[in-house]
Each structure stands twice: as C-alpha cells, then as structure tokens.
Amino acid sequence: MVKDDYAIEQFRKNGYKITPQRQEILQAFMDNNNNQPLSAEEVHRKVVERYPNISLDTVYRNLNVFLEIGIISKLSFREGKSRYELDLGKHHHHLVCLKCGLTEVIDYCPFKFLEVEKIEEEKKFEITKHSFEIFGYCQLCRERPVEKSFNKSVSC
Ligand SMILES: [Zn+2]
Ligand SMILES: [Zn+2]
C-alpha cells in the first residue's frame, strides 16, 4: 500500500492514526499520474472505487487533516474551485493555463530574489511562507484555433 515515509511520519508526529480511509485518500494522490491537482470530488471518485462506503464529507474532513499536517496543499487558481495536490516537502510553484486549466510544476522559486528581510523590516511582518502562481496559456491552447462557439451570444 502507501509507502510514503514522509507522509506516514507526518501522521505520527501530529498524533493522527493512519486509518484505511486516509490510506486510500493518500493512495488516490499517489496514483494521480497526470499530476494535475485534484478536487475533493475527484479524490472521492477515486477512493470510492476501492472503498465504496466513504462519503464526500469524510473525504473533505480527511483532506483538512492532510492540510493540517502539511502533506497536501490547497490550490484555488481555477474558477475559485479548490484543488489539492500532494506536498511531500518539496517546495515548488505552478504554471497555470487560463484556458484549459493545465497546471505544470516548476521547481524554480522566484521568492529567493525578493529582499525578504527588507520587506519584513519595512512592514514589521514576519514572513513564514508564500504562494506564487504564474498564469498564461499552454502550448496546446496557443496552437488551437479559436473556437467559434466561444463568442456565441446567449439569447433568452
Ligand atoms: Zn491550456
Ligand atoms: Zn517559492
């Protein structure tokens, strides 16, 4: 089953049991081969295949536990809908396509070019973390001809 030591360690450190439901949810993220962040509904759909009794509510509750112990992050750059992805201690950012929603991970962190200490000093603010996304259009969307239906006017 789930063999991620980092995730298991985080459960233990925070005093959470690794229940079968949590294992299945974690597995859903690990099986997510296309690496696109998952919505709670998508996680639920995957988990239900192996754990038919689990409710969407339970998935939400457990996603919050995962967030709390820091093994997933919540992203909300698409239509305000929250998506989640595994966050196993490797810092990264995303390129996000505004048209099709494709997200691509970049290991590069622009934050290191900011004068963090200066900002902290000026604003009297202690910075502990940051989030940063880059928006634009992916190669496919840029090559795809403009769809006619896109500009269709709606009549009542
Ligand atoms: Zn795209
Ligand atoms: Zn960063």
Describe the structure.
- With 156 residues, this protein is α+β, with helices and mostly antiparallel strands.
- The protein contains six helices and five strands, in the order H-H-H-H-E-E-E-E-H-E-H.
- It has two domains: 88 residues, Winged helix-like DNA-binding domain superfamily/Winged helix DNA-binding domain (Arc Repressor Mutant, subunit A), CATH 1.10.10; 55 residues, 2-Layer Sandwich (Dna Ligase, domain 1), CATH 3.30.1490.190.
- A hairpin with a 2-residue loop joins strand 1 and strand 2.
- The protein starts with a helix and ends in a 13-residue tail after the last helix.
- The structure holds zinc ion (2 copies).
- One zinc ion binds next to helix 6.
Query: At CATH's second level, what is the architecture of the largest domain?
Result: Orthogonal Bundle
- The largest beta-sheet arranges its strands as 4-3-5
CATH H-tier superfamily of the largest domain: Winged helix-like DNA-binding domain superfamily/Winged helix DNA-binding domain
Radius of gyration: 19 Å
Hetero groups in this structure are:
zinc ion
Helical content (DSSP H or I, runs of 4+): 25-40%
